[in-house]
Design a protein that fits this description.
With 162 residues, the chain is an alpha+beta fold. The protein has a domain of 101 residues: Ribosomal protein L17 (50s Ribosomal Protein L17, Chain: A, Alpha-Beta Complex), CATH 3.90.1030.10. It contains five helices and three strands, in the order H-E-H-H-H-E-E-H. It is flat and about 80 Å long.
Length: 162
Amino acid sequence: MKKSVFGRKLKRDKNERKALFKSLMSAFVMNGRIQTSEAKAKAIKPEIEKLVTKAKKGGNAAKLVIEKSLTKDAFDKMVKEIGPLFEKRAGGYTRLIKLGERFGDNSPVVIMEWTEEVKAIVPVQVVKSSASRIEKVKKAVKETKPAKKAPVKKVSKVAKKK
């Protein structure tokens, strides 16, 4: 007896779908953008949106749900970086950019990315002024002379035989 399955099947059984969605969502959280088929991106987009909302709210119950859906590294990044980043946004955390069709099977391909730029929190190093580096580059460009162009040979027209 055929049972109706909510959502997209993607020609996979339940366990394969769960594994696929978990790996896609974890890759998306870790990298900030992924390139995948349109059907897969549309399938995980609502799940990602729900996870971000839970990460914003915090709490133990929300963290348990997020932990089940993502890998350990992706879970840490979601709770520490992505949740606070979207604190003021009410929804619409992701976007899909259509790229066209894949060469092999003509399936539509999209890039899925965050609507706001996610930056890792890294201590900034103090760098010397860039003015001195810019001057060095300008001097190097002036010193290098462009290569001489090869002379163009003139080709004479040959009379056609009638």
